[in-house]
């Protein structure tokens, strides 16, 4: 399990009502109404908490006739607190999370409704924008210049500049009027 999943588990456990539900489910699998009655809570409240815990992977549900029965995930509850909180690559996770927030901010600034407003001047931001164009192409497929231009035009009018940039930074290769994405191994 990764850090994100473990954080979801910890968040899910940080609620007294959810802990009560889990304790009840440790006795035996139960349906929502039975849990609500046992704990003297509204069915909607129990359902809300079960959905949160299901999203975190703490419980799962099965259908038995007319009822949805909830069970705890034994594999999760057999983990130690140390297993849930130790990560070899915590620094990498934090850096990746920061980079993703930065990427989202840049894309939100320069794209409106999947259209590029303008190319950023700053190199790092420009590369993030080019990465969005790369997603529009398939690795291993060769494109004519017209196909490349048409794909780029869907998001930005100055397709020549974007195409040229993709060649200059070696994201894309060109030979005999054919274009393709450069493989990472090349």
Provide the β-strand percentage band: 15-25%
Q: Order of strands side by side in the largest beta sheet?
A: 1-3-2
Number of domains: 2
Q: Separation of termini?
A: 32 Å
Q: What is the succession of H and E elements?
A: HHEHHEEHHHEEHEHHEE
3D structure, described in words:
With 186 residues, the protein is an alpha+beta fold. It has 2 domains: 3-82, Arc Repressor Mutant, subunit A (Orthogonal Bundle), CATH 1.10.10.10; 90-181, no CATH class. It is built from 10 helices and 8 strands. The strands form 3 sheets. A 3-stranded antiparallel β-sheet has the order 1-3-2. β4 and β5 form a beta hairpin. α1 runs antiparallel to α4 (43-55), α3 (32-39) crosses α4 and α9 (145-153) packs across α10 (159-168). The chain is elongated. It starts with a helix and ends in a 5-residue tail after the last strand.
What descriptors fit this protein?
186 residues, alpha+beta, Arc Repressor Mutant, subunit A, 3-stranded antiparallel sheet, 15% strand
Gist?
Strand 4 and strand 5 form a beta hairpin. It is built from ten helices and eight strands. The chain is elongated and about 70 Å long.
Lay out the secondary structure.
Blueprint: H1 3-13, H2 16-27, E1 30-31, H3 32-39, H4 43-55, E2 59-64, E3 67-72, H5 74-77, H6 81-85, H7 90-110, E4 111-112, E5 115-116, H8 123-134, E6 143-144, H9 145-153, H10 159-168, E7 172-175, E8 178-181
Antiparallel strand pairs: 1-3, 2-3, 4-5, 6-8, 7-8
